[in-house]
Specification:
The protein starts with a helix and ends with a helix. The protein has one domain: Up-down Bundle (Bromodomain-like), CATH 1.20.1550. The chain has helices at 4-7, 9-29, 37-58, 63-91, 112-121, 139-166; strands at 133-134, 137-138. A two-stranded antiparallel sheet has the order 1-2. 68% of the residues lie in helices and 2% in strands.
């Protein structure tokens, strides 16, 4: 039988992912902190976790499936943490960002039409500029910490679910 914490882990992870994604959307649409391309990439693992946890909830008492989906959620969050850590490195100028992160991509245009198309789809925000920080930590830095904490929670819940199922 599942203990109370592992039985509500999918709900907790769904809620935490929705809250984190909601905070990013509020910062964008309410406070005008428009995301760069790496910020957008960091949102997708939270969407994946919400889908996986919804699947775990839909499966009911199937502990093996629940544990598998929680483990996949943890993996998605670790990938998100990696993207966020990469973004922190770009912000700190430890390494260069992707081609979409800067205007350098515009140098590849061969015609005026290609340049116009690239300008219309070019990101408004540069990845190497910190839009907001608190205590010297950027939003990407906080996302590293949040993703790591949630990933650990997912993986611990997955292991405990399997142990409870085996007992």
């Amino acid at each position: 039988m599942l203990n109370s914490l592992t039985s509500i882990a999918p709900q907790l992870m769904f809620a935490a992912s929705a809250a984190t994604l909601g905070a990013a959307l509020i910062s964008q649409y309410v406070f005008g902190l428009h995301p760069c391309v790496l910020c957008i990439y960091q949102r997708w693992p939270y969407v994946a976790v919400m889908v996986l946890c919804a699947g775990a909830l839909a499966l009911g008492r199937n502990e093996t499936a629940r544990a598998s989906l929680l483990a996949l959620s943890g993996l998605a969050l670790l990938i998100g943490m990696g993207i966020a850590a990469y973004h922190v490195g770009v912000e700190q100028h430890w390494w260069a960002g992707t081609a979409e992160c800067s205007a350098d991509a515009l140098n590849t245009a061969k015609t005026v039409d290609q340049l116009r198309a690239m300008l219309e789809t070019a990101p408004v925000v540069r990845c190497d500029e910190v839009a907001w920080s608190l205590f010297g930590i950027s939003m990407a830095g906080y996302n590293v910490l949040v993703s790591l904490g949630l990933a650990a929670g997912c993986l611990v819940a997955a292991v405990r679910t399997l142990k409870d199922d085996a007992a």
